[in-house]
Amino acid sequence: MPSQATSQSWRNIADKETLAQLAIKVALCADWDEAIKINKKILQIASGEIDALNRLAYAHTCLGQKEKAQKIYKKALQIDPFNTIARKNLEKVTRQNGQSNSNGTREINNLPSVFLFEPGKTKIVNLLNLAPPAILCSFNCGDKVVLNLKKHGIAVTTNNGVYLGALPDDLAHRLLTFIASGNKYEVYIKSVNSKALAIFIRETCRSERFFNQPSFQDKHSPYLEEKEIVSS
């Protein structure tokens, strides 16, 4: 998470470019409340700043505040009707109603509780060998996905089998061993754009064999490992 000095020092900054970099920095740490505050200050300086509007709406989406996100994306489109990021994300947020989506995922409303970090039980992972951009762009933060086990690896797919990407080999081999012994996991999309997808994995059940063995051995908060995708 960002340091207290970082989170406080921006309040006296009036340069929108510097504030934009700080907004991205706190988003990298999934500090959505702070991201909202910084982007709002940018908009006080330049009310028509499209990138700040998109980042602000995205932060509200990741907090499960979809109605606020919709209003902000609509405002961005009033300023720039051809803005691709605002249009695509507005479509995603609008169609999400807590039911299974046409792409086979299920959107979760209470995102802050979903992404709660638990040492040894949770991890943020950037997927490899990604699906085409046209597929990735149909997903959003909070969509629930599944681990699809292979003989020598693990793919991440939707419930109806749409391929999204693959886990790194070292993590896949570790989880294959745990899962074979009875461990269970749930997986959510943490961040996504046309070029990258990060997932949040949570251990939900630990087998007797590995009762004293954590699924993940991160030495620090997983949020510092993630290259968070920020709409900017």
Number of helical regions? 9
Instruction: Label the overall shape.
Output: globular
Number of domains: 2
| Low confidence ranges | 1-7, 220-232
Report the end-to-end length measured between terminal Cα atoms: 20 Å
Strand-residue fraction?
A: 15-25%
The CATH architecture term of the largest domain is 2-Layer Sandwich
CATH fold type of the largest domain: Alpha-Beta Plaits
Question: What is the class of the largest domain in the CATH system?
Answer: Alpha Beta
Determine the mean pLDDT. 81
> How many β-strand runs?
7
Largest sheet: 7 strands, antiparallel
The secondary-structure class comes to alpha+beta
Tell me the helix content. 25-40%
Radius of gyration over alpha carbons?
18 Å
Order of helices and strands: HHHHHHEHEHEEEHEE
Chain oligomer state:
single chain
Short description:
The chain has 9 helices and 7 strands, in the order ααααααβαβαβββαββ. It has 232 residues and is an alpha+beta fold.
